[in-house]
Amino acid sequence: MFGLKRLMSHVWPITLEKRKADGQWLEVVLYNGITMLNSKEANYSYGNLQTAFKRMFKEVDLMWEGVNDVLVLGFGAGGVSQLVYKYQPQSNQVAVEASAEVLDLYKRYFKPVPNTRVVQGDALDYIREENSPVDLIIVDVYEDLQVPDKFQTRAFVKLLKQRLKPGGKVVYNKVVSSNATQAQLDDLMIWFSAEFSSVRINEQLTINRFIIAK
Q1: Total domain count for the chain?
Q2: N or C: which end of the chain has fewer CB atoms below 10 A?
């Protein structure tokens, strides 16, 4: 039956499950043979977001051979972590996801990401309390298309820096779709530039701005 659905998904999207959780709609969709997780306004895993990260990883040299420990803030259904595993299969990942409902859908519909320990909890609380240094931090924390305010402060940027090993890197995904979100990006760039020696932006799919800080 699932094989038939996968075949039909090349003609039109097929909804596998839809539920309201944590005050928002979540939907698992099969499209072009790929299972995706969406909110009402945004793709959370394995859709446009996956494409944006995939293109960014091709264009930005993160020197994967030196990446052993990775922290992913905003796991979703594991799309970004799957890309990290593809680039560096030997890395050990810790991935933090706030929503228990999202993780339930991940377990039901998506393949587990190898070498990845998934933690259910608030990303800010985790990074405050866990001080094990890592080589790479990926920040992809969203509620629909919005990054919660607490992840857009200089204090948060400082915490990111404190959790890195010497020479470590941060990749911060910021969607810019309005004057307000552009102003937020401008502030983030000021704070990252104050804390890191090298900061650049990689733009993908018109609205995705990846801050790369080293």
Answers
A1: 1
A2: N
